[in-house]
């Protein structure tokens, strides 16, 4: 445990079950999972919403308001109060979600000085990798109360039910309910299973979050912050005739991938001590809602994500040949392939989805290829999450301990990006000292708001 995480005490002072304020009708008892839900990783998706200092005497009132509004929200998101039964159904039995309160022995400014991933994980009601995400409570909320009167809400939602877009829809629904603004309430839309019919997975293995070799290796997590001006300069640098206007995410992803390739290659030199390029794949989970033809509703619940895969393989060549513009073009090309698959509806074919998942699992298991996943949580309106006492001063993804996983989050200004990067200890030592990376990103600076 890090020094900061061990010094700060996080004490659970209350834990209770929250049930929907109205019982779920019998005809909605069984919620069918889609084949994308079935193939989702067996983890919790987690988010931390940090709210500025307030009058600590009102915290009990604030917690009660959050509890009551969550109960009302669960009448709309009724599967989250249920339990997964078998591999294709959530039994919507109103068993409830978990609601915990914790007292944190520090101020919010202390945790924002240099955010510590180990400490942030303690603001959640459960570990990401817990099997409870499949066998138990699907939604867990922990309200963390700080000495300064500030508050941080830790959300954990089963990945078997939700992707990042669904998490965003849930938060929007909860905040609108907390404000009693029924006119602004975006009700969740169910029925993804009718589009993505479930599969018989009785003889199938769940997709691994990472290769077995990587799981055995100690993983390190670092936060890198790209300010808007640096991203603009990077976008200009990686632009080409193939990708004349790279997005923020494409530009940042290309730089991260380049530095990952260099770190891995340098940590595994050949017999002559020369750093030669190791083959690698770079994968982006893509929200299919906006790329389907016609587009799917933004509030359609479930996992509607497919993985783009860009590959880079120049065996026998030095890392000095790696071209950022080339990597950007490869990333862009892989994203365009998914868009074409969406337009042709191939991506929604259950049998083809199963085949692609098997191919993906085989690739991830190949020890001769480095596989990197970069998930963008940018452009989701998490910074609009106002439960009645103002918007959050900081919103953070809470890192899963999975090797070679990167998650991108917006800064509060909506233009900068925070990147949480996981690598092995050896690779991270090389990655975090990469001069090209540090020309555009700051290593774990204080959160400004």
Automatic annotation (TrEMBL):
Protein name per the record: Deacetylvindoline O-acetyltransferase-like
Annotated source species: Prunus avium (Cherry)
Lineage per the UniProt record: Eukaryota, Viridiplantae, Streptophyta, Embryophyta, Tracheophyta
Coiled coil: none
Similarity annotation: Belongs to the plant acyltransferase family.
Gene of this entry: LOC110745814
Molecular function as annotated in GO: acyltransferase activity
InterPro entries linked to this entry: CAT-like_dom_sf
Keywords associated with the record: Acyltransferase, Transferase
């Amino acid at each position: 445990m890090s020094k900061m995480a061990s010094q700060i005490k996080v004490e659970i002072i209350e834990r209770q079950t929250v049930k929907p304020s109205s019982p779920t009708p019998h005809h909605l008892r069984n919620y069918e999972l889609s084949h994308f839900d079935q193939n989702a990783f067996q983890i919790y998706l987690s988010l931390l919403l940090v709210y500025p200092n307030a009058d600590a005497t009102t915290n009990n009132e604030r917690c009660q308001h959050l509890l009551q509004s969550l109960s009302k929200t669960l009448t709309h998101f009724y599967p989250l109060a249920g339990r997964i039964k078998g591999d294709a159904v959530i039994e919507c039995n109103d068993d409830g979600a978990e609601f915990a309160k914790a007292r944190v022995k520090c101020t919010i400014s202390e945790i924002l000085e240099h955010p510590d991933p180990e400490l942030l994980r303690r603001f959640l009601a459960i570990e990401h990798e817990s099997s409870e995400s499949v066998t138990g409570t699907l939604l867990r909320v922990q309200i963390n109360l700080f000495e300064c009167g500030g508050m941080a809400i830790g959300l954990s939602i089963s990945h078997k039910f939700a992707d990042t877009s669904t998490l965003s829809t849930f938060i929007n629904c909860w905040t609108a309910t907390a404000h009693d603004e029924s006119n602004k309430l975006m009700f969740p839309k169910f029925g993804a299973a009718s589009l993505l019919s479930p599969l018989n997975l009785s003889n199938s293995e769940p997709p691994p979050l990472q290769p077995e070799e990587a799981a055995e290796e100690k993983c390190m997590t670092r936060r890198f912050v790209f300010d808007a001006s640096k991203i603009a300069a990077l976008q200009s640098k990686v632009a080409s005739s193939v990708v004349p206007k790279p997005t923020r995410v494409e530009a940042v992803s290309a730089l991260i991938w380049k530095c990952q390739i260099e770190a891995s290659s340098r940590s595994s030199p050949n017999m002559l001590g020369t750093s030669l390029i190791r083959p690698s794949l770079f994968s982006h989970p893509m929200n299919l809602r906006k790329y389907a033809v016609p587009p799917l509703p933004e509030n359609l619940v479930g996992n509607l994500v497919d993985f783009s895969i860009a590959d880079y393989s120049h065996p026998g060549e030095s890392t000095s040949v790696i071209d950022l513009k080339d990597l950007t073009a490869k990333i862009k090309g892989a994203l365009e392939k998914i868009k074409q698959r969406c337009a042709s509806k191939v991506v929604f074919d259950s049998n083809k989805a199963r085949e692609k998942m098997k191919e993906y699992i085989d690739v991830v298991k190949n020890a001769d290829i480095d596989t990197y996943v970069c998930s963008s949580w940018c452009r989701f309106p998490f910074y609009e999450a106002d439960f009645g006492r103002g918007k959050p001063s900081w919103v953070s993804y809470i890192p899963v301990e999975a090797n070679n996983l990167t998650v991108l989050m917006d800064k509060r200004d909506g233009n900068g990006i925070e990147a949480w990067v996981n690598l092995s200890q050896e690779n991270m030592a090389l990655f975090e000292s990469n001069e090209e990376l540090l020309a555009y990103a700051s290593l774990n600076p204080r959160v400004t708001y």
